[in-house]
Amino acid sequence: xxxxxxxxxxxxxxxxxxxxxxxxxxxxxxxxxxxxxxxxxxxxxxxxxxxxxxxxxxxxxxxxxxxxxxxxxxxxxxxxxxxxxxxxxxxxxxxxxxxxxxxxxxxxxxxxxxxxxxxxxxxxxxxxxxxxxxxxxxxxxxxxxxxxxxxxxxxxxxxxxxxxxxxxxxxxxxxxxxxxxxxxxxxxxxxxxxxxxxxxxxxxxxxxxxxxxxxxxxxxxxxxxxxxxxxxxxxxxxxxxxxxxxxxxxxxxxxxxxxxxxxxxxxxxxxxxxxxxxxxxxxxxxxxxxxxxxxxxxxxxxxxxxxxxxxxxxxxxxxxxxxxxxxxxxxxxxxxxxxxxxxxxxxxxxxxxxxxxxxxxxxxxxxxx
Length: 369
Hints:
The chain has helices at residues 3-29, 91-118, 143-147, 168-178, 230-257, 259-262, 269-282, 287-303, 310-323, 329-356, and strands at 37-50, 55-68, 122-136, 154-158, 161-162, 185-191, 194-200, 203-204, 210-211, 214-225. By secondary structure, it is an alpha+beta fold. The strands form 3 sheets. Strands 3, 4, 5, 6, 7 and 10 form a 6-stranded antiparallel β-sheet that branches. β8 (203-204) and β9 form a beta hairpin. The model is unreliable at 358-369 (pLDDT under 50).
């Protein structure tokens, strides 16, 4: 993973966080609600600027951000009964502020797709036979390296079964590798103008599946199809936006309904940066769609009714609207703090796991080999 590619992926994540927090910030300021902090990241402050009312800060750990309100700030000089404090506003005003981050991410994702389709166009693959091996893990003695597979090789067949020229070729090869741990696989390899036969024995991974330590991508050439005019760009972007949203909800549905089998597919910041870096290195134009995908996922995750997320706060507002009064502040604070600790714990776990597995992350197909 090159440094520039990794920085490009980190910049994309940072931009999406800024968009999300900017949604909250603008929704509050446009309603004349007091905002005293706008921070990107958590932890120690690296840089800050004090505006007339709001402190803008960049913090050490870029895993999120927050918009702060003076409602519970002991150093605030704003009277507790000020009508422009967030807590003193009607439920609808507060709901607009809380949901604005999600809305901003969805709108931003759509316009990213419009820009992509209207400028560089959507990428379509002209498939060629086999599966390409962009990289082989050399930091450890991987099964692929032991067998003699090299970066740039194309796997044409496995145990006599041709992989063919289609988007399913990668899935077929992945299935063969994962289903045959500690069992030799005879692969026909094309290396430049030469065809050679190699025997690879997948190693048994902790998840019980086979792994050989390579990155895989479809073999072929990318052809870009640009929208003919601005109307077509908006229309095609709407279709693609709808497709990504449906896939995102399907993915979360599978996670909930079959958690034991799909939990291993959860990706943390390290894996997302690795995926983005691979995309930036192979075809930077696809960063538009990558950013749109992550932005939509960020919106869906935040709208879930879980503590410490926007959806959790909206759930409290809904209860307040039904009851006619809010739940006790102490109860809300305890629930939010517990949720925040659980989310931070999950984030740290994913970072450690993804860092340990980084050599095995398939940057172009989001699969591990």
